[in-house]
Write a structure and sequence with these properties.
The chain is an all-alpha fold. The protein has helices at about 1-20, 25-30, 35-50, 55-80, 85-95, 100-105, 110-125, 140-155, 160-180, 185-205, 210-235, 245-255. α1 crosses α4 (about 55-80), α3 runs antiparallel to α4 and α8 (about 140-155) crosses α10. The model has no long low-confidence stretch (mean pLDDT about 90).
Length: about 260
């Protein structure tokens, strides 16, 4: 741990040197705001490395993300707002306070601890609702997951998976009715409701709908590009083919994966 502390200190000192009057022009020009795109980009690259199951790449991307975190702290320290010790102290206290079932001698069950976590956050941050605090800049799927996760923490949750599945069936029937009535506004609303129930089912199964969709997108991309290659090998033009012909190529691609 001491060695880790020294290396973290060295990283901070490196960033401080870059920010010095005789440092790097680019680094000296940066502000907390200008670095936001890089912070978001590195976060997504960490997620990609995890999804691709590449430990060496993940190590590299976590380093890049850590650099962004340190840079933000150095900028704050320059303005006398806070330093790295305070950041670490705050998160250590937060972890202990929000996990009484782990760090306290009191007998607290895990459900109660989750409920208390959300209630404590509402109180500490003076929020109007338990649902507050989810950044709107996140993808709608993640926002939906987090909102339902928060509400579930205080008991607003199906008790069985069948109830969650039945809700999907219910919302699908309402969507079909909206389509039948050709009510565009209602159709959009029902699609939103259906997506919400699917997100809730994935959360119920302890899965991320965001990651599930990312993987499905990647699978679709890979299959469709293979489909394009097969069509070119047959010296055909893709937009001249019927849907039935395209689906035959699609099935070839799927069968080749088995």
């Amino acid at each position: 741990m001491k060695n880790t502390d020294q290396k973290l200190k060295q990283l901070i000192e490196l960033v401080q040197k870059l920010r010095a009057p005789d440092g790097c022009d680019w680094d000296r020009k940066q502000t907390s705001e200008t670095l936001i795109p890089y912070l978001l980009e590195e976060s997504h690259e960490v997620a990609e490395a995890i999804l691709e199951n590449k430990p060496s790449l993940l190590k590299e991307e976590l380093g890049d993300l850590l650099l962004n975190v340190v840079f933000q702290v150095v900028l704050a320290n320059e303005k006398k707002e806070f330093n790295m010790d305070e950041v670490i102290d705050d998160i250590n206290k937060k972890i202990v306070n929000r996990h009484p079932h782990i760090f306290s001698d009191d007998s607290v069950d895990r459900y109660s601890s989750k409920k208390n976590w959300e209630l404590n956050k509402k109180k500490q941050k003076k929020r109007d609702s338990i649902l507050d605090g989810v950044p709107n800049s996140l993808s709608p799927l993640i926002v939906s997951h987090r909102l339902q996760d928060k509400s579930a923490a205080v008991g607003f949750e199906w008790s069985t998976i069948n109830q969650a599945i039945n809700k999907i069936d219910e919302e699908l029937e309402e969507l079909k009715l909206g389509i039948k009535n050709k009510n565009q506004e209602n159709i959009e609303e029902e699609i939103g409701d259906l997506l919400t129930t699917i997100v809730n089912l994935s959360r119920f199964l302890n899965l991320s709908s965001e990651l599930a969709l990312k993987k499905a997108n990647k699978k679709f991309y890979n299959r469709f590009t293979q489909l394009e290659k097969l069509i070119l090998l047959d010296k055909k033009i893709i937009n001249n083919l019927s849907l039935d012909e395209l689906m035959k190529y699609w099935e070839k691609v799927k069968n080749a994966e088995k």
